[in-house]
Amino acid sequence: MPRSSVHLLRHGEVHNPDHVLYGRLPNFHLSELGRQMAERAAGYFAERARAGANFAYLAASPLTRAQETARPTAQALGLDVVTDERLLEALNHFEGLANIRGQLRDPRHWPYLLNPFRPSWGEPYRSQVRRMMAAVGDARRIAVGLAGDGAEAVLVGHQLPIWVTRRAAESRSLWHDPRRRQCTLTSVTTLEFDGDRLLTVRYAEPSADLLPGAANLPGA
User: Whole-angstrom Cα distance, residue 114 to residue 98?
Assistant: First the structure.
């Protein structure tokens, strides 16, 4: 069976001076630091390509920050960016609000906090995994169809959907503490396959040295 790899790339830092949980809101652009992170991610993939990696497919969430993160990688690899709605950020009741910790003390929001295991404030974790894994499966098949054994694909998306997809791939509970997600800005979570069988999960942080001081809202 042909082997393949799908890299889940989180977007870079967003210009968000009001600290809004922006979710699926439009027109949240990368900050200057975020653009540096996107270039760093492109360099990471370009280095892999120079070492023999065979990149054949690139897709991104339709949200501005994901599209802007994808562009340098598209240029570095000579690929077009395919927009895939399944890579969207998770729906969230608190979308558009600032000072989320303070909002949690407002009784109007309490009905949305009843079940953190689902979670009750947004799109169910299982729903996120289903759509992400469907996108991963299609990306893997398209890449193999274009480039054969060893083909690789890059999907640019958002922290929570990437993180719960990784947890599902590793057979871990989807419920988690948002403060403990291992999915930093422009991090790369790689799923390696032999045919349809997932072999392993790898993780890398091309922008590790740029992270100190970066804005990084959980769920953003």
Answer: 21
Is the pTM higher than 0.85? The answer reads yes
Q: Is the peptide bond before 119 cis (omega within 30 degrees of 0)?
A: yes
User: Kind of pairing, strands 188-194 and 151-157?
Assistant: unpaired
CATH of domain 3-17+32-90+123-210: 3.40.50.1240
Given a contact cutoff of 8 angstroms between Cβ atoms, the answer to whether 143 and 151 are in contact is: yes
Q: Walk along the chain (220 residues) and give the pLDDT tens digit of each residue.
A: 899 999 999 999 999 998 998 999 999 999 999 999 999 999 999 999 999 999 999 999 999 999 999 999 999 999 999 999 999 999 988 887 888 777 778 777 777 677 887 897 899 999 999 999 999 999 999 999 999 999 999 999 999 999 999 999 999 999 998 889 999 999 999 999 999 999 999 999 999 999 998 887 655 4
**What residues does each domain of the chain span?**
3-17+32-90+123-210
